[in-house]
Design goal:
F-box domain-containing protein, about 210 residues, elongated, alpha/beta, Leucine-rich repeat, LRR (right-handed beta-alpha superhelix), 9 helices, disordered C terminus, single chain, seven-stranded parallel β-sheet
Amino acid sequence: MDKNTAMVRAVVDAAKSKPPEFLRSEVRYLALVSNDICSLDEAHELLGLCKNLVGFSALYKFTALALLPILTGIRVAQLGICLGELFRGSKFDLAYPSFETITHLNIFDGVDTKGIERLCPQLAMLPALTHLALDRRWPRDVLMEVLDMCPRLMLLSIFERDEKAEYRSARVPFVYDARFVIVLYPNFYDCWNDWENGTNGLSDVGPGRSVL
């Protein structure tokens, strides 16, 4: 069991022994990123009790449409999610009230060409969005379009392992936008270490990262 799993497991156990006021007032960030931390029903119950969440992230079995009505009642500002998994079998719909308060959106998975075409205009319609992080499989020319369509964006970042040359070679003709940043993560799990640092008020780009 990794550290993140153990921490969430402790919160799940606390939910069974503490009064609802404890989770409502004390839990500000929650990440469900390992299938063995709790059941889906437990996850939904836990999320529903954490009424003052600022940030929420989910992977694997926890990425389900059933999350959205719960998140609507919490109105989180920071969301990390696999949109392909979330809207599996249906069209992307960022008009859902859950997305109205999102300032920081991290889309973990890649999206196919048709999905990108549907998604980009919807990103531009999110009223509070200022920071967007995307999977490395998004082409650079599409990223430039996203920046053009979303003038309120302050930062658009791409998480890469070591393929920064791919994005450099795509600068034909040269297109520059100071809001576009490539963050190198040799190890995917470093993302979660940095996520935890960010929840503690520390830098969310850890030592040794290259920011281009």
